[in-house]
Amino acid sequence: MNNIQPLLQVSKLHKYYTDGNVRAVKDVSITLEKGRIYALMGSSGCGKSTLLNLIGQLDHVDRGELKYQGLPTEKSTINSQFRRQFFGYVFQFHHLIPVLTLRENIEAALIHNRMTTSERRLRAETLLQDMGLKHRMDSRTIKVSGGERQRAAIARALANNPSLILADEPTGNVDSKTSQMILTHLQRYVKQQQSAMLIATHDTQVSSIADVVLHMKDGEIVSVDDVTGTNCV
Ligand SMILES: Nc1ncnc2c1ncn2[C@@H]1O[C@H](COP(=O)(O)OP(=O)(O)OP(=O)(O)O)[C@@H](O)[C@H]1O
Ligand SMILES: [Mg+2]
What we know:
The chain is of the alpha/beta class. It has a domain at 8-96 and 162-226: Rossmann fold, CATH 3.40.50. The protein has helices at 48-55, 80-86, 102-109, 117-130, 146-158, 176-193, 204-207; strands spanning 8-17, 22-32, 37-41, 63-68, 71-72, 87-90, 164-168, 196-200, 212-217, 220-226. The strands form 2 sheets. A 6-stranded mixed β-sheet has the order 6-7-8-3-9-10, with helices on both faces. A 4-stranded antiparallel β-sheet has the order 2-1-4-5, with helices on one face. β7, α6 (176-193) and β8 form a beta-alpha-beta unit. The chain starts with 7 loop residues before the first strand and ends in a 7-residue tail after the last strand. It binds adenosine-5'-triphosphate (ATP) and magnesium ion.
């Protein structure tokens, strides 16, 4: 371990859903470091999405602690602006705004930045171009294919240069060529920006880009394969 703050520290995290009486996450402790890709694997219902949602502050933690770059969540610096800049979310279904064009969707993600309209437009175009969507920028989301939507969703997730990408089955609904394109792009981003990515998946094509594979069962991390040999739990 170096003495630089890890990007994220998760300590003894628990989540219980009273609705259904489910202990979805049990005593999970992990540390995520910059520049690394973590795959979260396990059978359906084992708690992957719940853990991602807790880490991404999309759901309330019952017990345990999350620290972002050393800062606990209760610190006032962890506000909505911090969240917008820290996290990049990618979901299994794109969650783009259907009536907007792909470009407008990306511009909407940049709306809180101190950018002029033309800077936002240029940034959106560059991000979409990087995802091979130059020719689709001005098409409405409902008029493009599923793979194109998912690529636009990746562009949107990267719009604010996030420190941590949280991806839940990001390639679950695309063909293997598109999947490979998405994975290559995300991997390049993480390595170039020295951000990190936690990616929930069933797919070994996805886990093949991971530096660390976390295996989850019944809400717990049961084993860790770390190709770099550093212990993250
Ligand atoms: N909002 C909720 N309310 C009640 N129970 C929930 C809720 N969300 C998830 N669960 C339950 O918590 C457990 C973990 O669900 P989760 O969605 O995290 O699993 P997962 O590993 O992501 O599964 P999959 O691979 O199918 O996406 C499951 O038993 C699920 O039914
Ligand atoms: Mg899930």
